[in-house]
Amino acid sequence: xxxxxxxxxxxxxxxxxxxxxxxxxxxxxxxxxxxxxxxxxxxxxxxxxxxxxxxxxxxxxxxxxxxxxxxxxxxxxxxxxxxxxxxxxxxxxxxxxxxxxxxxxxxxxxxxxxxxxxxxxxxxxxxxxxxxxxxxxxxxxxxxxxxxxxxxxxxxxxxxxxxxxxxxxxxxxxxxxxxxxxxxxxxxxxxxxxxxxxxxxxxxxxxxxxxxxxxxxxxxxxxxxxxxx
Amino acid sequence: xxxxxxxxxxxxxxxxxxxxxxxxxxxxxxxxxxxxxxxxxxxxxxxxxxxxxxxxxxxxxxxxxxxxxxxxxxxxxxxxxxxxxxxxxxxxxxxxxxxxxxxxxxxxxxxxxxxxxxxxxxxxxxxxxxxxxxxxxxxxxxxxxxxxxxxxxxxxxxxxxxxxxxxxxxxxxxxxxxxxxxxxxxxxxxxxxxxxxxxxxxxxxxxxxxxxxxxxxxxxxxxxxxxxx
Lengths: 229, 229
Fold this sequence. Notes:
The structure is a homodimer.
Chain A: H1 15-18, E1 20-21, H2 27-38, E2 43-49, E3 52-58, E4 61-63, E5 66-72, H3 76-83, E6 86-98, E7 106-116, E8 119-120, H4 124-138, H5 151-155, E9 157-163, E10 166-172, H6 180-185, E11 191-199, E12 203-204, H7 216-222, E13 225-226
Antiparallel strand pairs in A: 1-10, 2-3, 2-6, 4-5, 5-9, 6-7, 6-11, 7-10, 8-9, 11-13
Protein name (chains A, B): Pyridoxamine 5'-phosphate oxidase family protein
Region (Disordered) (chains A, B): 1-23
InterPro entries (chains A, B): Pyridox_Oxase-rel, Split_barrel_FMN-bd
């Protein structure tokens, strides 16, 4: 996140060279990447299409060192993602940082940026697994309760896998970092306004037959508070 | 948002040609764009840096037909945004769509995608106004309560303006769009799990002097429910 008066950039000017190679690292760093990705509902996928960047929101899934994307076989954006590198970003905004000066206003957040070249999955089992991971990410517990993709649907769907090797995580947490003079001057409130995402009561489909109860995997989420996606 | 089994793409394969020229349109379309932008806290900015797309989360502001960005004068990403086109996306996820089949799972959302070439603002008044718009977007009502940017801070800050002429808004709302066969088969719950973003009680800074009360412009937000950013 760009800070209002920051002298640090949101990400390094030589971004790709500064990215962590996560496969070569373990422990906390990798756990942090997984946590950011697993808490997300959507990512912002950046591709270059006809020489111009295009950033689109899309759902995704993850299993181990692989992130999965999918879309229509007719999607120009996904096609572009297979012929050039992509940048894929998941951001959770967790609070608004109120400072004593305008230029120190900021956001508390966690974000993961992945770079790489997605590859198309062609193996039927791998494709089905990827689609399950994507549905699991959006709606945990739902996959087993619903009809699986059929032949016609699978034929119309492009499934991509993106290696998580080249990735970085950035976070900002805590209160404002004000200038000493501004703190000394006093009189201005400073602090953090925390934010989170909540689910409200599920709304049954208009065409839902009577007697079908809301399943536990849906109800469970209503009491959850999840990180912002 | 990519839909699980959708035959439509998240955005048109020939994206730029399909974008709406908002300045040439009025009324509902333009109001919809403004509503999506004004409800957001961050955008995802896509630039091309060294031939590769880079997508970063950053805060922004808007006034009329102009969107404002800022960052360090040392930011390679912002510099890249001035020498090539950008794609800037604001997305609000508003619900998870539970369908009767895996491939019809989706998200309800509103998103705005802007394309263009940001220009650097050099006029002092324009720069100050842009910074105010950015702080106003993140923290409405805060600008007048805090110290204004000083000469040193301004010298270290790059302020960019992006015209909103070339933009598109996409939304998905309502329940699942299941296959007739799956609806007829029955037995599977379907519906929407609505989501929203909430603010929790403000946390004063550790170094806040005693006796400084939380201002009304902060307290006001705690009772707000805002769209997801």
